[in-house]
Every structure is written in structure tokens, then in C-alpha cells.
Amino acid sequence: VAAVVAPFGTSRGTTASTAATLRILAAATAALGAGLLLAFASRRRPVAARGCGLLGPPGGEADAPEEQEDRGEPHADEGEVDLEELATSTVGAAGSFVEERGARVSRRASRASPASEGDRRAELPGAQRVYVKTMGCAHNSSDAEFMMGLLQEYGYELVGALEDSDLCLVNSCTVKSPSQDSATNLMKRARAAGKPVVLTGCVPSADSSVADGFEGVSLLGVTHIDRIVEVVEQTLLGNTVRMLGKRRELPSLDLPKVRRNKCVEIIPISGGCLGSCSYCKTKHARGKLSSYSGDAIVQRALTAASEGASEIWLASEDTGAYGIDLGTDIASLLGRVADALPAGVMLKLGMTNPPYMLAHIAAVAEVLKRPNVFEFIHIPVQSGSDSVLQAMVREYTIADFSRLVDGLRESVPEVLVATDIICGFPTESKEDHEASMELVRKYRFPVLNISQFYPRPGTPAAKMKRLPSSLAKRRSSEVTQLFDSYETNQHLVGQELRAWFSDTEAKHKQTVGHTKGYVKVVVPRDDALLGRSAMVRVHRRRSGTSRETSSAREPRDCPSVLELPSPAPFVA
To answer: CA Rg, the chain, in Å?
Structure first.
């Protein structure tokens, strides 16, 4: 088109202004043509309304300017190409088409060869096999499911073993050193096997240097999960991509998804938090609080229910802080979602820190009483000592925590309150440790996540003088022994109650369900129960083990006979 228009612009009888206009049009058309050639060269297939193209943002409109933190990363070195420079040099002034500012693509001289020279599949974009391993919290799990949905929609095959893959996607967690070590060890294994790697999740978002020294490892930040197809494609082409800048807008909830558990939809209601805990690395990755709109969350819940999900889990780094940035609150959201859900679909609230939930005790308790809401809440206390909480910068006292738990239990007697304890924090004295033990004795938590302190690089607590690791280990063992010394579910033996079944434990050949108070029950494997509820009779509770075996049967017109497993601590 440009070749035809340019001569016409200088033909006889054409005014100067018209000629200038046509020359501009010719230049623009040439730039557009070059842009189309670039898009063609990348061999992309259009994905409707997903915005996966290298030159186009979601919905076809430019994103708002991003908030990108200066992490001390070097500018693009020789051999690295800035995505914005690549696009603008080809498309001219159409820089608004570039969604990611400052993303870098490192082009290696040698392309990774396909697993088999005769395998044409390895040469077709979107036809390769991807192994996805995710670690960490429910929010991370939801991110992984969105990324798998995008990859599968584009044509990639998801496989269950690293050995069967053409690329390894590691969705990492930075909460504790062991979780980060798991991610880096898998990354090493994949590279040793010649697999290109994409590292996503909180680890690269909090500290991109984790991939230093690894060739063939691309990095994708938590606010860019909707760009996973591009990053995977470029990585398979032999390039190394780093897309870590912070975006104001969270990824859309209207993305395709592959649920690991078809019965459970995990909806992130916000990203980031308002806290500044001295030991926490997640804030470095997720940033400040940014909430999704209530409309978007309700619509996602309804979509999931229409696709067969029987449980909706609301996840966040701090559900209690939800909506503060939007002028709303968590109690209002819970009520809206509970009202909207169709019959038979249950709602579950995720983790909350005490400070912001304290204002909503009565309202949240009322929602928990609803028949389609599990009576469950996870409130990490971390320590039973006010002085340790102050050193942790947790922004509440034990009195605040007790007021929250007592208020919920008073209104909802069967509510299951889960909590976390960190043992061996640098300022923890013998008396502080005993205060934590006393708190556990007082509340007899049915679910207790017990962890030793791990210093996370870049956090204030990492600069504190550590306690001996043997002391932290001993204190962790003492809390575990205390947890094992009491029972919380014995009173349910012999009762008849309703359970909602949503999972399978293949190893033990069991189907898993939960009561309204979120107590776990198991029966011999019966896949027909998945996604359904049934009245059950608790047959027995096995003490001293977290392994559930059952002699259950399900006679016609009679309640199921189930075994109620004893509670078990989560020890790290």
C-alpha cells in the first residue's frame, strides 16, 4: 500500500499540503505494515479479548502507566532488546501499543534445539508441552490456574512430569527459605535436563537476582500473569525474558482457567496488603493493597459455579483489608457473594490478619452463619507475646487477637479458627515462647501451622541477631507436642451432619469432604460424591495420626458412616 500511495503524493496537480498529508499516511502505513510483519514473524495466533499479543494490551487499549519499583537491575546490556524499543523501532510512533514498560528480552546466539530433530511439534508455536509446578498460598495456586488456562487455550499441552515437557514453569513462593529453595532446586533440575524455564510467582517479583547465573530462565512478575503465553513462546524460541515491573491494574479475573481441583474455584479478591511485617518478603513481591471490584468477584464466582465448581474460596494476603482502597469492606463482599451463589455452592473465606477484621466481627459472623458459607476463618497470630508482635510489626496485641476470636466464637460457636505460630523469632525470650504455648492451650486451635523463623533477605528481621537454630527447633517441637496433646473433634463422634465433598486422596483411596464447621471427614473413594453434599454419621475418630483410613459404607436411605480424622499440625 505504501508503494502505491507515495508516488501519488508527488503527482502533478497535487497541492503541497495534500502531498505532505499523503506522505504522512504513507509513513504510517509502512509502519503498520512493518508491525504486521513483526506480528507475523512471531507467529502468534490471535486470542479474542485476552490481549496476549506482543504488541497489544488486553482489550486492545493501552494500560495505565505502571508503577515500577527500582530494584537496582541493570539496563539492557548488549545482546538484550527492550520490548518497547523493539516495537517502536518497527511500528514508529505507535509506542502506546506496548503494554510492558522496561521488559527485557535477551536473545541468545544459539536456539534451543527441539527434544527430537524429527519432531515437528517442537517447531510449532503453541504446540509444545509445559510442566507447571506451583508452591505457596491459595493466591499463588489461583495465579497458576489462570496461567495454565491461558497456555491451554493457546494450544500448549499441560503435562504432569518434568521429563515429559518441553518447558518448565515454576510458580514460586518466597514466604520461607525452604519454599524458595524448592523452586530454585526444581529450576536447577530443569536446566540440567536441558529444559527452558519460566520462573513466576513471588520469588522473582521480590528478588530477580535469584535467577542470576542461570541461562535459559525467564522471569515473570505476579502482576503480569496474563502475559504468560508471550513469555513461554519467547523462551521456547531461545530468548530470555524479564517482565517484572509493577502494574497498577491487577490481571483480569475474566481469564481462562484450569482448576487443579475441578470442584474448587479460588478467587483472589485483592493483591498486596497494608502491613509492614518485619519478617515478610511477600510484601516485596505483591506490593500495596489493590482490590478487585465486587462486581468482578461476583461475576467470577458465578462463572465458576456455572462451570461446575461447588466451592468458592476467597483468597488474599489479607482478606480483612479488602476494599479499603475502594471504599468498601470484606463483610459487604461476603454478603454479596453469598447472596449470588446458586444452591449447593459453598463459600469459604481465606486468611485475614487481625487489625482490619476487628471492625467487622459482628457483620462477618452473621455471614458465617449462612447455610452456604463454611464456618471457617484463618487468623495468623504468629506469637502469644506482645513484645514479639511489636518486633514483628504486626500492628495488634494479643488482646486484639483474643477479642476477634472470642467475638466470632460467641456468635458462631462451631467456627473453626486456624492460626499460625512462628517459633524462634530473633527477639523471642523463654517467657515469650511460653506465652505462645499458653495461647495455644487457651484456644486449642483445631488447625495450627507451626514454623521456625527463617530470615528473608531484604527484610528488617533478617538484620536481627538470630537465635540458635537448635533452640528454634526445640521450641517448634514443644508447640507441636502441645498440639498433639489435645483433641477438638471428639464431640462429633456419633453425630449426624452434612458434609460437602470436593477432593480425592488417591493414595489412601478416600473421598474428602468438610462439614459446615469445616471439619474434615473421609469415606472410601466414591467419585460420585464429588461436588455434592450428603448427610453423614461420624463413625469414629482416630487419634495420633493425620492419615485417614475408613471403614465407611453408604447404605441406601441412611447417613454415610464416616471416619473423622484427628487434627494435625502443619509443621515447617
So the answer is: 27
For 435-481, the pLDDT digits (tens) are 999 999 999 999 999 999 999 888 999 999 999 999 999 999 999 99
What pLDDT digit, counting tens, does each position of 122-138 carry? 556 668 999 999 988 89
Q: Are 272 and 320 in contact (CB under 8 A)?
A: no
Residue type, 510: Q
Cell readout for 347 is 463459600
Nearest to 143 by CA among 216, 62, 199: 199
Query: How many whole angstroms separate alpha carbon 32 and alpha carbon 44?
Result: 17
Cα angle vertex 117, ends 112, 120, to 5°?
A: 95
Name the band, by pLDDT with cuts 50, 70 and 90, for residue 71.
Answer: very low
23: cell is 506522505
Show the cell assigned to 435.
506465652
C-alpha cell at 499: 458434609
Distance CA(462)–CA(370), nearest Å, equals: 43
Q: State how far the Cα of 482 lies from the Cα of 438, in Å rounded to an integer.
A: 10
Confirm if 58 and 252 have CB atoms less than 8 A apart: yes
Q: What is the pLDDT of residues 518-530, one digit of tens each?
A: 999 998 999 999 9
Q: How confident is the model at residue 178 (pLDDT cuts 50, 70, 90)?
A: confident
Contact 96, 65 (CB under 8 A): no
- The backbone region for 511, taken as left when phi is positive above 0, alpha when psi lies in -120 to 50, beta otherwise, is beta
Q: Pairing relation of β-strands 239-243 and 217-220?
A: parallel
3-state secondary structure 415-465: CEEEEEEEECCCCCCHHHHHHHHHHHHHHCCCEEEEEECCCCCCCHHHHCC
State the angle between helix axes of 361-368 and 398-411 in degrees (0 to 180), rounded to the nearest 10.
40
Cα(76)–Cα(280) distance, rounded to whole angstroms?
A: 30
Specify the amino acid at residue 490: Q
- Residue 136 DSSP code: S
The amino acid occupying position 57 is P
- Using DSSP, state whether 481 is helix, strand or coil: helix
d(CA 436, CA 388): 10
Binning pLDDT at 50, 70 and 90, where does residue 337 land? very high
What SS3 class is residue 472? helix
Q: Which long-range contacts (CB under 8 A, 24 or more apart) does 99-102 make?
A: 99/51, 99/56, 99/57, 99/58, 99/62, 99/63, 99/227, 100/66, 100/224, 100/227, 100/243, 100/245, 101/65, 101/66, 101/68, 101/245, 102/68, 102/245
**Neighbour order of strands in the sheet with 264-268:** 264-268, 311-315, 346-349
